[in-house]
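Retro notes
What went well: the complex prediction finally ran end to end.
Inputs used:
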Amino acid sequence: MAGPITPTAVRERLDRVTDPELDRSIVALGYIESVDVDLPEVRVEFCLPTAWCSPAFAWMMATDARREVETLSGVERAVVVLTDHMHEEEITRGVNEGMSFEATFPDADGDVESVRRDLDEKALLSRQYHAVSALLDAGLTPEQVVGLTPERLNLDHVDDAAAGSAVRADGAPETPEATTVFVREGTVGITVPLESTHSYLAKARPLGVVTDGSDPLFRTPDGETLTAENFERVYHRTRLTATNMDGQGGICAYLHEARQGRRHLAEVE
Amino acid sequence: MYRYKGEDVFVVDGHVHHWDASEENIKHEGGEQFIQCFYDYHTGFTPEDRQWTIDEYRTYDTDRMVSDLFGSGYVDVAVTQPTHLDEFYEEGFNRVDTNAELAEQYPDRFVANGRFDPREGEEGLEELERQKAEYDITGVKVYTAEWRGDSKGWRLDSEEAFEYLQKCVDLGIENIHAHKGPTIRPLNKDAFDVADIDDAATSFPDLNFVVEHIGLPRLDDFCWIAAQEPNVYGGLAVAAPFAQVRPKKFGEILGELLFWLGEDRILFGSDYAIWEPEWLIEAVMTAELTPEQRAEYGVEFDLETKKKVMGENAAELYDIDIPKRADTLQDDAISEEFGLTGGDIGPEEGAAD
C-alpha cells in the first residue's frame, strides 16, 4: 500500500482483524476507540462490549491488530491499548512487550492457540453454511455440491483475502464474482455467485482444510467426507453454528451500545 | 395469567432473582463489575421508558418484586435461582435463604431453588441437606464460573460434582439449572462451555438439566448435546429479549431450539430483575415465526407451543397442576392486592392481532 499512513488506512488494515467469537471485523463491530498516527509509531485503542469479555479473545484481537498494523510500510511500531477491561493492564502490557499469553496470565490453563483453533473451526462452519446456501439457491443439488472442488469453481489460484474488495488497475475485480459449473456430464451450465465461497476459502485454506485445487471444497464438522447421505444433517448443523454466531453477535452489539451510552453519559457529567 | 385471544396462558417464570448489589454489600471490584454488566444487559434490551436507574437496580425490596412479577408481569408462579458469589459480595448476591423467604411468604407463588458448589466438600453436602430439610427444594441453580479461593470455576462432569448430583438424586432434587452464559473470567478457559452437561446428563438420567441462557454463546454445542440427551432442557433467559429488539433473530433462535429440542423442552425465564416480565412476556407471546422460518425449520410457534414454553413445560418439572393451581391463585392475597381476580389481566381479547 503506497501513500501516507492515515488513520483511515490503519482502520482499513484493522478491518482484517475479527472478533474470533463472532467472526466479524473489529472495525465493523465498532470496537476501535481511536487511532493516532505519529510515525513511525501508530497507537490504537480498543474497547470490548463488556469488562469481562474473554481475556483470551481480547488477547487474540490485540495481537492480531498489532501484527496487521505493523505490516503497513512506514510503521515500525504499533501500540495496541485495551481500555475498560478487567485485565486491560495485563493484556496491554503483554501484547506490546511481545510476551506470550501464558507468561501474561500464569494461572491460565490451556493455551490460547487451541481456543483460537476451536473458534476458527466454528467460523468455518458458519461460512460453509452461507457458501452452501448460496450454491443451493443458485440451483445446484446436494449431490452436485458434495462433488465440488476449488478447481471446478475456477478458484484454485485465487487470493481469497483480497476477494470482494480488491480491484485491478483496469477496473476488473481481482477475483471472479461468479462462475459457471457444468453438471450432468457437462451438458448443463449453472452460474453460481462466489462471494460466500471466497469468504469460506479465506478461512478454509489457512486452516489447512482445503490445500489443493482438487480437494473436496466442504466437509463435515468432524472432518469427514461430505456425502449425499450426510449432507442434510451437516447442513442443519452448520446452520445452527451460523445462527449461534449471529445471535451472540446481536447480544454483543446491544451490550456494546449500552456500555458506550453509559461511558458517554459519564463523560458529559 | 396472560390472556391471548381469549385464552388463558399460565405463566411460570423459570428464572428470577432477589439480589443485593448495594455498594455496602460489595467487597471486591468483581462485584461492582458484575452488577454493571447486568445493567448493560438491562439497558441494552429494555425499552427506554421501562429502564430502571442503576440505583434502583442495585437492590429492590420484595414488594417491588412481587408487584413486577405478579401485579403487572402476568407471572403466575416464579422460580427463584440463587447465585451466591461470596467472593464478591459480603452477604452474597442472591441467596438461597433470601429467596426462600419469598416462598415461605407466598408458597403458591414461588418455587425456591437451592444451590451447591462441589468445591465446598463435605460441608457443602450438609448444606444441601439443610436446604432440602428446611425448604424442601426440588431444584438447584449451579454457577460453574463462580470464583472460590484460587479456583475460577468448576465442571459438572467432575468427580466432586457427580457426588453432589448423586446427593440430589438421593434427596429428590430433580432439576439442575446450570448457568451457561455471561461470566467474569476464567481467562482462556472457556466458562461458557456446555460440554460438561453431556456427561452429567448421560450419567444421571433421572435428573433434568436446564441449561440457562440456552448456552449462548454456545447455542450450537448446546443444541447438539440436547438433541441427544432427552433430559436436557433450554432456559430462554437472555434469548427472550430478542423477541422485543430483534424479532427475526428471535425467530431463528427459536426455530433452532424447536428443531433440535422440540416444543417440550424449552422453558421461559425473564431473569428478573435483569428484565421485567411484563414487556418481555408481551413480546414473546406476540412473536411469530416468518413464513420463511417456518419453511426452513419445519416448526410452528403457535398458541399451543407458546403455552408449553410459557408454563406447561416448567409445571411438568416442578409438579404444578395448572388448573388446580390457577384455581388457588385466582383469589389469593396477591390476586386480591393487584385486582387480578378472574385471571383476566392480559391484553383485551383479540388485541394481539
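What we learned: The first helix of chain B runs from residue 29 to 45.
What to try next: split runs per interface for comparison.
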